[in-house]
Amino acid sequence: MIRRVAGLLVLSLFLLGAQNQAGNQTFHIPQGWIQTDSARATILSPSAELKDAVALVLSGHPFTGDFRAAFDQDVKAMNGALRVLRGSEVQGRRTADGVDLLATTVDLQAANRASPKRFYMAASVRGRYELMVYTAATPALFQRYWPAVQQFISTWTFANLNTPAAPPAEAVPTAPLPGAPKAPALETSPAPAGVTPPNRLEGLYLGYKYNYVTVLGVVQRKAVNDYFSFFPNGEVYWGLPQTGLVAFSMATACAGGKADFCGTYRINGEQLSIVLNRGTYRQGGSVAGGTLQIEDRKYTLQGDPSKSSAHTLEGDFGRADAQPGEDLARRFIHFTRDGRFVDQGIVTTVVSSDISSGNPRFERAAGSGTYNLAPYTLILHYSDGYQRQLGIYVAPSDMEKPALSQFFVNTYSLVRRR
Hints:
This protein is mainly β. It has helices spanning 2-15, 67-79, 139-155, 250-253, 347-350, and strands at 20-22, 25-27, 33-37, 42-46, 54-62, 83-87, 91-94, 100-109, 117-125, 128-136, 157-158, 203-215, 218-230, 235-237, 262-268, 271-276, 281-288, 291-294, 297-301, 315-319, 332-335, 340-344, 367-374, 377-382, 387-393, 406-409, 412-416.
């Protein structure tokens, strides 16, 4: 009992210490650690160790892309030329404050046989991407300071969470663009099946934009996919929903400080106007067939597998970015033309958790059952009753092919192996 009380007292003294900040991130520095700030990143390290032997690297930037894809890209870029010996599955969850978190631990090996170990953790916070990397030169050092890092994580939070939350979407009417006619009311009755109402868009449009990311303290510019999902009722979502477009709930997707990605659109002739975040962010452009010009970016309507000539999926599909010898290269999902599937671990690599209901639900390691294709949605019906929806699309040029050899699930490319 005395030991437990003493432990709680030590933890309380730690938590009551002075709060530190690095950009949007706020935290308490572990006892005996020092903070070094630069324009590109903040580094925390224990004063008892040699320079660069143990470090916590903190960085962040504005962000509107695909959170999981950005995290995977950063982990791969930061690992660099180091060989990945072991990597844990990416785990995801949502906090009570509506912050989405992703994390993974990686054992590495350098050319000189050194064995660094790293823990990556990222947060998607109200239009920002925040990254924390714990790195140690050896597994022993990693384990020695892991309790201090866990204490750090328990105090890790974000300044923009303290800004007043936006009122409910229905309480704030969307204002028209200056000088533009009043927008027509959104249709409340559905259009006939397979018919998009006049002056409406339906489907997933893909373009490109540049993001600025910090990789080991260096700011880099990289082109990333950028998506808009349009619905025939006049709503638009800036992104590719993880669960696809079928039964997509705008209210759920926009909860927890994510209204920046949700809004409405209007078409007047060839002119397109998009209003996001309850009228606070507007973009203009034009419509020409299956192509949109939004600001200075071009977006193209992607293919819907449920409407392709193939109609079904068939064969073994794996991640296109898997390298020979990696664990990822041994994972695949098998489809048959009669609507059956067997997942050999690929689903968990394209989406870590289902948070569409507001509660994290981690993917199983494998499974089998039946599947069906719906508009931009792959629906997996597992044999134990579990159902999983995934966002899916194909390249427009593949729509007329009798069999699909490649498709995209939540931005990941899956290619047919046999």
